[in-house]
Write a structure and sequence with these properties.
64 residues; mainly alpha
């Protein structure tokens, strides 16, 4: 599920899960998107799938 989310968001899987070893460009609070991704990864798999389906549908509609 996470590789699909990373592709949909246009980031690497390492960035998505916070394992990117590059130094951060800025310090401070975690961006809202990162916080949301962390919350998403904590959900049970069926709920993750439901969120992914909604996100994919919205992204597909936005690219029309």
């Amino acid at each position: 599920m996470l590789p699909r989310l990373a592709r949909a968001l246009g980031v690497s899987l390492e960035v998505l899960i916070g394992e990117d070893q590059r130094p951060a460009a800025k310090r401070g609070p975690t961006p809202k998107l990162q916080q949301q991704l962390e919350r998403l990864s904590a959900l049970p798999k069926p709920k993750q799938r439901a969120v992914m389906e909604v996100l994919e549908a919205m992204l597909a509609q936005a690219s029309r």
